[in-house]
Amino acid sequence: MWIADGWKDYEVIDCSQGEKLERWGDYILVRPDPQVIWNTPKVNRKWKNMNAHYHRSVKGGGEWEFFNLPEQWTISYKSLKFNLKPFSFKHTGLFPEQATNWDWFSEKIENANRPVKVLNLFAYTGGATLAAAAAGASVTHVDASKGMVAWAKENARLSGLEEAPVRWLVDDCVKFVEREIRRENKYDAIIMDPPSYGRGPKGEIWKIEEAIYDFIKLCTGVLSDNPLFFLINSYTTGLAPSVLSYMISTEIMSKFGGSVDASEIGLPVSDSKLILPCGASGRWER
Known about the structure:
This protein folds into two domains: 2-84, Golgi alpha-mannosidase II (Immunoglobulin-like, Sandwich); 96-285, Rossmann fold (3-Layer(aba) Sandwich). It has six helices and 17 strands. It has helices at residues 99-110, 127-134, 146-158, 173-183, 208-219, 241-256, and strands spanning 2-3, 10-16, 19-24, 27-32, 52-56, 62-66, 73-77, 80-84, 117-121, 138-143, 166-170, 189-192, 197-199, 205-207, 229-234, 259-268, 275-285. The protein has an eight-stranded mixed sheet. The protein has a five-stranded mixed sheet with strand order 2-3-4-5-6, with no helix packed on it. α1 packs parallel to α2 (127-134). The two termini are 21 Å apart.
């Protein structure tokens, strides 16, 4: 498992009974987590002294209960800074487990000894974009949500990267890649974090199980002749690391050589010393 253990402003303190107890900077949140199926005693006093609690509804979805939480606050990871705020479906605007991937590809960019063009698809609030830009890459950031792209730009400003070579684009990722192929634009690296289900800006429907293999194949059309890496993340239960590995091997390693690895990604739990699984990633590299 690849573990995001470099955080100072974030930690999973404990997890039990379908929930995780987290510290986000100065604030304590309790959020549901479907991986937490064990039922151990909630002895940490912070379980009763949280700043916000997201309650899952039996009908789907849920709602926040706030006790003493600002509308927005900021945390840091190394040189990067991120705005956080609670919004729908329990999220805060950041997936801390992705820091293990940020560290991996940042090192590859820094050691490439050449200009590196990165395409970040389904780029959300820009964690991977900022990590790649801070490592010296030029980045094309694509997300279908105008609000998410605006949020990512604000994170770039907070991180001192407002002048970094980043193209911020609100677009459907599949259609953008199709146009880039026609324009013969190439990238040295691709990062993608596709949702299980989503809609593009014009209502385009995305279902990951139906679309992801063809999309990986499509993306090979925008890789340069000497690509550096390819990264795909999945929070979809059916897409196990071995499935990610097979797709990347079939479509990328077969064309460009190199090596493929895939694994669960996770976060350390302070109280129990467990590692909380948080999805999976597949990596190809030269």
